[in-house]
Amino acid sequence: MAVVLRFAGVARDSAPSISAAASRIGCAKAAASARARRCVTGRGLVVRCQSGAAAVVVRKDGAATAAAEKATGFTVVMKFGGSSVASAERMREVADLILSFPEENPVVVLSAMGKTTNNLLLAGEKAVSCGAPKASEIPELAVIKELHIRTIDELGLDRSIVSGLLDELEQLLKGVAMMKELTPRTRDYLVSFGECMSTRIFAAYLNGHGTKARQYDAFDIGFITTDDFTNADILEATYPAVAKRLQGDWIEDPAIPIVTGFLGKGWKSCAVTTLGRGGSDLTATTIGRALGLREVQVWKDVDGVLTCDPNICANAIPVPYLTFEEAAELAYFGAQVLHPQSMRPARESGIPVRVKNSYNRRAPGTVITKSRDLSKSILTSIVLKSNITMLDIVSTRMLGQYGFLAKVFSIFEDLGISVDCVATSEVSISLTLDPSKLWSRELIQQELDHVVEELEKIAVVHLLQHRSIISLIGNVQRSSLILEKAFNVLRRNGVNVQMISQGASKVNISLVVHDSEAKECIEALHSAFFENGFMSEVEGEDLQQNGSPLNSNGVIYGN
Ligand SMILES: Nc1ncnc2c1ncn2[C@@H]1O[C@H](COP(=O)(O)OP(=O)(O)O)[C@@H](O)[C@H]1O
Ligand SMILES: N[C@@H](CC(=O)OP(=O)(O)O)C(=O)O
């Protein structure tokens, strides 16, 4: 196993003494010594060597002694999203950021540069109808080529790093144009070019600037997934495979791993898969779990998870702490800042996730952990999921007919459609459908028609489209207080809530309103909860007095 020895604030001349101590505990003296000298940065020092569990302790006077402290190879995952690596300047900044933590030994995960994934998807869609001779002229292809070549030039690198991939991409688009079809499988292969290029450029930049780095395509190092193209799930076999590969390579030849986010390999098809939009967060937490790291950091373009989407409420403020459960609900119910599945590996292994801003390193960000002190917490964040479909299903059979709910849900299971929120009474059920499971416009209508047709065999069905779910993520122990405040605001704004659902998660109350009212509602709710001193007013109130959690789901039928 590779051992990393970390020393903060040591003197430059302590390198020989560290080297001697390292050799006493079985580290290769030459490697340790060479690295010790090379890695002294003034702010800290990193010694890497191959040995069992052990470490070297450096005294203030610079002398080093061996100690029986356990140390492992990698310490953190640092994931940088598209906005963090959108240009040559941003790549330099990210390299500087990584190297500013000499005490860390990171695995780096990168997304595609800027809007490259969107451009690849658009290029693919245009290729379907443009005809093969015109495929090379698709404007988005030109934008992708220009961005990557300009970045390489500005970083002083060799264009050959991506020229092969760019040629292959053009060929692929010609193929799509010829076939006049873009299957989910081809779509995944197409978007994989984004991450494959960004990671190659970044690794080359680090290598050119004295920091040894090694690029990895996730689909080549053990990221094994289901074959659900465009939305694949990571399979359990991924964890040992990824750990073996990354640790094995490190022992052979230490270098910072630069891994493509978002991508995997289907276990049956062996084809490239993707983990759903924003899936690099999941790549990061998967690596964190595989290697048993201390922390997973996801670096974004905002100061952490905020009280609301800043595009809806400009006054949104960072949330300092969240639990995995809160973060997962928040992501699942529409906050684009985190991938919905990304909390799972972190929760399973108890590894904290820190959301940080690569544009504002000093901002403390959000720390997501297994548990936190909720005694003073009321509402944490407000989330919007728009354009959802709601179904009101009323049984045509006699009151108390058993098997009704089972029948309803088996219809959704058979059709492969997932349900978000549910509220029931004895003979009726209201629910919302997850739009991410419904792909193109045409398919939505087709699928919905089919759902209604099946349900109408056992019930009267009302299909309500253009609805929004407003999720109040917070301490549901204080639901009476949250709901009192929320309904006051909604009443003042003349909003008719059409369904309420408080899930078993105990962190989320969902309200369904019409799409046209949703943004205004959120602004009003955010202002009432976060901008007018409400939280501090109720802080310290007796939880016993105020906490009478809702114990049933309710439905309010509306327009
Ligand atoms: N509650 C929220 N907190 C923070 N950001 C949010 C929230 N809801 C939506 N966002 C949006 O998510 C963006 C960051 O996520 P994302 O685009 O995935 O970052 P990256 O591409 O860097 O991984 C922010 O720029 C912001 O517009
Ligand atoms: N590039 C992919 C994966 C990803 O995670 O991106 P980002 O980290 O920029 O959200 C996407 O756009 O979906």
Characterize the structure shown.
The protein has 3 domains: 2-67, no CATH class; 76-369, Acetylglutamate kinase-like (Carbamate kinase, 3-Layer(aba) Sandwich); 379-546, VC0802-like, CATH 3.30.2130. The chain contains 17 helices and 21 strands. It has helices at 15-24, 29-39, 88-99, 116-130, 139-154, 160-179, 184-208, 238-252, 280-291, 324-332, 343-349, 404-415, 441-455, 479-492, 515-530, 534-538, 543-546, and strands spanning 2-8, 44-50, 55-58, 64-67, 76-80, 106-110, 213-216, 224-225, 256-260, 263-266, 272-274, 295-300, 321-323, 353-357, 366-369, 379-395, 419-424, 428-433, 459-474, 499-502, 508-514. The strands form 5 sheets. Strands 7-9-6-5-12-14-15-13 form an 8-stranded mixed sheet, sandwiched between helices. It has a 6-stranded antiparallel sheet with strand order 17-18-16-19-21-20. The protein has a 3-stranded mixed sheet with strand order 8-10-11. Helix 10 runs antiparallel to helix 11 (343-349). The relative contact order is 0.08. Mean pLDDT is 84; it is low at 6-10, 24-72 and 546-559. The structure holds adenosine-5'-diphosphate (ADP) and aspartyl phosphate (PHD). Aspartyl phosphate binds at residues 81-82, 111-112, 117, 194, 261-262, 277-280.
Sequence-ordered SSE layout with sheet pairings:
Layout: E1 2-8, H1 15-24, H2 29-39, E2 44-50, E3 55-58, E4 64-67, E5 76-80, H3 88-99, E6 106-110, H4 116-130, H5 139-154, H6 160-179, H7 184-208, E7 213-216, E8 224-225, H8 238-252, E9 256-260, E10 263-266, E11 272-274, H9 280-291, E12 295-300, E13 321-323, H10 324-332, H11 343-349, E14 353-357, E15 366-369, E16 379-395, H12 404-415, E17 419-424, E18 428-433, H13 441-455, E19 459-474, H14 479-492, E20 499-502, E21 508-514, H15 515-530, H16 534-538, H17 543-546
Parallel strand pairs: 5-6, 5-12, 6-9, 7-9, 8-10, 12-14, 13-15
Antiparallel strand pairs: 1-2, 3-4, 10-11, 14-15, 16-18, 16-19, 17-18, 19-21, 20-21
Bound molecules: adenosine-5'-diphosphate and aspartyl phosphate.
Aspartyl phosphate binds next to loops.
